[in-house]
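Entry: DUF1468 domain-containing protein
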Amino acid sequence: MSTNERSLVSRFAMEVATGCATLAAGVVVVLGALEYEIGWDEGGPQPGYFPFYVGLIIIAASLGVLGQAFLNHRRSREAFITREGFARVMAFFLPLAAFTVGSYVLGLYVGTFVYLAGVMIFQGGYRWPFALAVAGGITGFFFVLFERWFQVPLLKGPLEALFGIY
């Protein structure tokens, strides 16, 4: 890590958080399995047998992760994610989240068009006419592919209803 790059989250913090989360999941699995019998009978393993031991394995692995994190904590000051790395992840994630919400509200085809055009213009640096043409072409291709050829209707929104496309 360079001196001008500041760590947003340390590797140690993420290892501890992951170890605790998987430990909690393992405990939930074990407790859930204990609601059933966990032994063997004449028919073989009882309903809680496999989940119980899988939960124990998860707990053991989680304790191993936690132990290793604490043993190596003093030697390593490695960053899990830096501000620059977080900004890159958000540059990918936020448009994708907006696409998901937009597709639900506006319909899949309009959401696809807006997402592709927006990413091409704002992240890719393409000019508006080219980005709109590519987004329109791809969206039109998907519409023909799914709605006409495969006859699989996808999520429609108010704009498709306005034009009578159902």
